[in-house]
Design goal:
Layout: H1 2-14, E1 32-43, E2 46-50, E3 56-60, E4 64-75, E5 80-87, E6 93-95, E7 98-104, E8 107-112, E9 121-139, E10 146-154, E11 157-165, E12 168-176, E13 181-185, E14 191-195, E15 199-209, H2 216-221, H3 223-233, E16 239-251, H4 256-261, E17 270-282, E18 287-302, E19 305-321, E20 328-347, E21 350-370, E22 378-387, E23 391-395, E24 398-401, E25 404-414
Antiparallel strand pairs: 1-4, 1-15, 2-3, 4-5, 5-8, 6-7, 7-9, 8-9, 9-10, 9-11, 11-12, 12-15, 13-14, 16-17, 16-25, 17-18, 18-19, 19-20, 20-21, 21-22, 22-25, 23-24
């Protein structure tokens, strides 16, 4: 009950703080958090399959509707909007002895508003997104019916209109997936072109929350600088921090082993994992040192070949903040990890591979903080970690690729010592 009351109080507090950047553009008005829902619908698309006699048949995908949870924020004083869309459920299309799953994964959206978002005004936007698409076709005419999992990340073109009323954002939009034709193995040896949906439409509602404006008065009066200087002199701004969020791990390469032995198995898709971090922050050099653990896996079962890849990783990273643009503070730094990689394969019920290795990995971390000032007890952080040339050798000259790109769009960072 107290949680519900707290949320209602926060919403009531924020009701008077919509479009605060229209009064003036300061670091404390740079970004606004927003939460909401949308419905995304797909149009078009087709696939092919082999019937019981071995003839190629066509199959049109039906239009689909998917509700999603949205979390993100407007930035650059209403000129940009970044958020992620998380699908809440999906459906399977069943027809002609086929079972087809075709859906969008967690989408990361980037929009630009030539005319900034303002109260009681309709504003056009353009943009793009990081849009994973998942497709799997089960052909029940086969003994081993599960087809390969097609995982393709595209960058569709976005356009639409946003209407703002106080803290409420209403939006209609279109997404054009111009790279919608893909190769797909409809059997172990036969490739055909399929057409994923080229067009998506969305209708969304989001509620805007102002989380930083309360600190603006102290900043403008000089009080924040005074407190910052005092705490920095006493080294009270150095200290440990805790981070928590959700990361998406993109598998970047198709494995050499599969190209040689299982060409019908596609590149692995996206793995979702919790992302926890323990770090230490040095105020004067504006530097983070952090450790973190990630454990995630991906699996597939394609025409009788079942594979599972698992990664367990303990990482250490050092990141340096580069500059401060009105509270938008990017950082970059190296990452070293200790990896435990494993690969298991069963083919037609028999185990054919069971390999694992422990090794060091090397990567690069980039990202940014939304940091109105340097005495905040908590901030929001975005992380992007790249791990190239990470692999497990299965056979001489054949590797299973673990090249990953991890993307954590919103991570909550808390400094416990600043709460005392």
């Amino acid at each position: 009950m107290r949680t519900i009351v707290s949320i209602m109080v926060l919403m009531a507090y924020n009701f008077g703080y919509s479009q605060v950047y229209t009064e003036k553009q300061t670091r404390h008005r740079f970004a606004q958090l927003n939460l909401g829902l949308d419905v995304q619908s797909s149009f078009g698309g087709s696939t092919k399959y082999l019937d019981a006699l071995g003839n190629i048949q066509s199959f049109n995908l039906t239009n689909s509707f998917s509700p999603r949870f949205l979390i993100g924020g407007t930035h650059f004083w209403g000129h940009a909007d970044f958020y992620i869309g998380i699908p809440l459920f999906s459906t399977t299309l069943k027809k002609d002895n086929q079972e087809i799953t075709a859906l969008r994964g967690v989408e990361t959206v980037f929009k630009f508003y030539p005319l900034r978002i303002e109260h009681n005004k309709v504003r056009p936007y353009i943009g793009t997104s990081l849009a994973p698409f998942y497709f799997e076709q089960q052909n029940n005419n086969f003994q081993y019916s599960s087809g390969p999992e097609l995982n393709k990340t595209s960058f569709p073109l976005l356009g639409g209109l946003t209407f703002n009323s106080k803290n409420h954002l209403f939006e209609i939009g279109l997404a054009w997936n111009y790279q919608n034709q893909q190769d797909y193995y409809i059997s172990r040896s036969q490739i055909e072109k399929i057409n994923t949906p080229p067009l998506y439409a969305t209708f969304s509602y989001r509620y805007m929350l102002e989380t930083t404006l309360g600190a603006e008065k102290d900043w403008e009066s000089g009080r924040t600088k005074e407190v910052t200087d005092i705490l920095a002199e006493k080294r009270r701004l150095n200290g440990f921090y805790l981070g928590a969020g959700i990361s998406s791990a993109f598998w970047l390469k198709k494995s050499d082993y599969n190209q040689k032995n299982r060409p019908y198995i596609n590149q692995s898709g996206i793995s979702i994992m919790p992302d926890f971090t323990l770090g230490y922050y040095w105020h004067k050099p504006d530097l983070n040192l952090a450790i973190g653990y990630r454990g995630y896996s991906t699996s597939t079962d394609s025409y009788g070949a079942a594979q599972q890849l698992r990664r367990q990783s303990l990482l250490f990273e050092a990141t340096k903040f580069l500059f401060d643009y009105h509270g938008f503070v990017p950082f970059v730094g190296p990452t070293i990890s200790y990896e435990k990689l494993s690969f298991i394969e069963d083919f037609e019920g028999n185990t054919t591979q069971d390999k694992q290795i422990e090794k060091f990995g090397y990567g690069l971390t980039i990202g940014w903080d939304i940091r109105p000032n340097r005495i905040q007890t908590w901030i929001l952080r975005t992380n992007l970690r790249w791990f190239p040339n990470l692999s497990l050798e299965v056979e001489p000259g054949s590797n299973i690729s673990f090249d990953n790109l991890e993307f954590n769009f919103i991570q909550l960072i808390i400094y416990p010592s600043r709460m005392l």
